[in-house]
Structure formats: C-alpha cells, structure tokens
Amino acid sequence: MILFSDVSKRYDKKPVLNSISLIIKKGELLFITGPSGAGKTTMLKLIYCSERPDSGHITVSDWEVSKLGQSEIPELRRNIGIIFQDFKLLTNRTVFDNVALALSIHGMNQGKIRHYVNEALEEVKLLDKASLYPQFLSGGEQQRVVIARAMVSKPVVLLADEPTGDLDVENAKTIMELFSKINGKGTTVLIATHDENLFRNSGHRVVHINDHYIEKEYVG
Ligand SMILES: Nc1ncnc2c1ncn2[C@@H]1O[C@H](COP(=O)(O)OP(=O)(O)OP(=O)(O)O)[C@@H](O)[C@H]1O
Ligand SMILES: [Mg+2]
Fold first, then answer.
1. Distance 41 CA to ligand 1 centre (A)
2. Which is it for the CA torsion 68, 71, 72, 78, positive or negative?
3. pTM
4. Which of 54, 80, 102, 184 is the residue whose CA sits 20 to 30 A from 92?
5. In terms of residue numbers, what domain contains 15?
6. Which of 105, 130, 154 represents a domain boundary (last residue)?
7. Closest C-alpha to ligand 1, atom 1
8. Shared-domain flag, residues 164 and 190
9. What is the sign, positive or negative, of the torsion defined by CA atoms of 30, 32, 6, 10?
10. Could you report the per-residue pLDDT of 24-39, keeping only the tens digit for each?
11. Confidence label for 112 from pLDDT (cuts 50, 70 and 90)
12. In the chain, how many domains are there?
C-alpha cells in the first residue's frame, strides 16, 4: 500500500532521513515515533508530496509519489486524509461547512455533499453540532471535526501528525478509538506521535526513528 524504498531526505545540508525502507500494508494501522526532530512529520509530508525525497522511491497505492508531476498531486491528495496541526478549522465557517469544503472544491452537487458530510459528522458523533462555529466546541470535539473533514472524501490512507497533542487523556482515548474504527473499515492509518500511551498495548506496529534511521520496530 505505502512503500518507502531507500528514501533519503535532507533539509539544506542537514540529513533528516537516511535510507529509510518500510512497507505499510493495506489496512494496517501503524505508529511512527521517535524523538523531536527525528523526521516523523517529514515522513508523512513525503507521502502526500508536500516534501520530495532527495533519493529513493515512495509509492502509495498505484502512485509513484516520488515521480509525480505538480499537476498530478491534487489527485493523489484526494485519496489521502490529512490531520495536521497546521490545517486548522476555519473559524468563520460552521462545523458543517468546514467538513463540506473539501467536497465543494471537487465540484460535487449539494445533495451529495449534505449526505456525505452528515455521514462523516455522524461517525464522529457531532451531527448535533453541525451548525455551530468551531470555537464553540471543546478541544476534543474540534479534533473530531478535523477527523470528519479528513474522512469525508473517503480516503484510502489517513495520515495523522500528533493528533492528540493538545488533548487530555480521556479525549486522546476517544480519538484513538475513532482511528481504530476507521482502520477497522479498511482505511490504512498512519499516526506520528510522541505519546507512548497511544501505542502501548495497542497491538499495532510501531516504527521508531532516531538518528535518521529506523532504530527499531515492534508491536505496541
Ligand atoms: N522545511 C524545513 N526546512 C528546514 N529544516 C526542516 C524543515 N522541516 C523540518 N526541518 C528539520 O528537519 C528535522 C525533522 O523535522 P520533523 O518535523 O520531520 O521532525 P519530527 O520528528 O516530526 O519532530 P517533532 O516531534 O518535534 O514534531 C528537524 O531537525 C527540523 O528542524
Ligand atoms: Mg513532527
């Protein structure tokens, strides 16, 4: 499903990832962990082509990501759900409109948009808050809207960067349960996190990067 083959990446002259090879199976839920600056976010960015590797190959389903032309990137991204701290909810749009935005950009008709957005909000149990503005929701609820927004276009892969970073233990648990549920329906899920509590006893594979390499891999 996702393949890193001998991938290296540096920023300016500074190496971040050095000859990383990794196979992520279709339908897997995988954690990427390691110290701050290890390259976790960079790995996710390479997958959705916001950064390019200096050498090696990355494939996602049938896309050879490392070779995609600029014009092919939007099509790749339509198939990837992204939960990143820098993609905040728009404060001047309702919960419904925040989730709908990705679909309206794709030119879908209103009836279909309503159907898919309601379905995504139902999934995260926020249908009753659809008409509110994000700032009237708790942090945990806002993160669930972000998940609905990422899932509304039914991506084959979900990438989450520190998805529980700002949340307390109880909300983090709820978010993890949602990821498990999404993964249970067949979506491949990749979670970059510092938080060992997320993967301890999870039964999912954990890839630990350190010093530019995959230092160890184990089942959490
Ligand atoms: N656009 C950039 N330009 C230059 N250096 C960068 C850039 N993005 C990241 N880096 C550097 O690359 C290294 C890896 O960054 P990355 O964000 O992938 O780490 P991370 O493992 O996600 O860290 P954290 O746990 O703090 O989020 C860091 O040393 C960072 O400073
Ligand atoms: Mg990071």
1. 7
2. positive
3. 0.96
4. 80
5. 1-79+157-220
6. 154
7. 11
8. yes
9. positive
10. 999 999 999 999 999 9
11. very high
12. 2
